[in-house]
Amino acid sequence: MIKALSIAASGMEAQQLNMDVIANNLANVNTTGFKKSRADFQDLLYQTIRNAGGTSSTGTEVPTGIQIGLGTRTAAVQKIFTPGDIIQTGNELDLAIEGDGFFQVQLPNGETVYTRAGALKKDSTGRLVTSDGYPVIPEITIPENATRVAIHEDGTVEAFLDGSSAGSQIGQLELATFSNPAGLFSIGRNLLKETPASGAPTTGIPGELGLGTISQGYLEGSNVSVMEEMVAMIAGQRAYEINSKAIKTADEMLQMTNNLA
């Protein structure tokens, strides 16, 4: 009887975490380059009362055993790196990656981090930076007298200076990929850090090594599907509800046992 209480409680805790993950997905449905997460669960240890394949008291082989599961736990919360919708913005500094690559960004402490959010800006010195002011790597500075910037599929950046009809190359963006992007560590602000699980980054020019190409004037939206999350939320709510009913039923059975005394 006590087992049922703890087993159902583990189910409620799991569904509570599942709901947290779904809520975060829905909260970021309009976040540029956001990748949704999914909670994975696994069953806990089993109490084995009789092993399958053992010998019964009459000498026959036991075809099935008796094992009582002790609940569930969260095994992982995995990021799903399916592509998001590509949205046309017309802004010359909005960039979308059509492929598996990541933009490289430098933090103030010199550390390199990675992002799919290509809503770049120009700071006071002309550098291409993220919305938080972190410069992209390799660093690219747009001249003050540039009237237009063209960023090609291969990451080549050209500036059209005032009074000139021809563009001048001022740099080239590079992208990075990982053998296991699900192993990247999220630090917020649309940024991801390399970890031993993600593997070391492979960097290169867009269009090579499966890095993907760059589209200027577009942004990659979140890959969250509101409909899928709503269905998952309803299923999680029902699972939470049925686990709470299991606790209530186990409690009522305990009360019945107490009343016998």
TrEMBL record:
Localisation: Bacterial flagellum basal body
Flagellar hook protein FlgE/F/G-like D1 domain location: 96-159
Principal location listed in the UniProt entry: other
Gene Ontology CC annotation, any one: bacterial-type flagellum basal body, distal rod
Alphabetically ordered keywords of this record: Bacterial flagellum, Cell projection, Cilium, Flagellum
GO biological process: bacterial-type flagellum-dependent swarming motility
UniProt keyword Transferase, yes or no: no
Pfam families: Flg_bb_rod, Flg_bbr_C, LlgE_F_G_D1
Flagellar basal body rod protein N-terminal domain: residues covered: 6-35
Domain named Flagellar basal-body/hook protein C-terminal: residues: 216-260
Keyword Ubl conjugation: no
Family label: Belongs to the flagella basal body rod proteins family.
Subunit structure of this chain's protein: The basal body constitutes a major portion of the flagellar organelle and consists of four rings (L,P,S, and M) mounted on a central rod. The rod consists of about 26 subunits of FlgG in the distal portion, and FlgB, FlgC and FlgF are thought to build up the proximal portion of the rod with about 6 subunits each.
Protein name: Flagellar basal-body rod protein FlgG
Biological source species: Geothermobacter ehrlichii
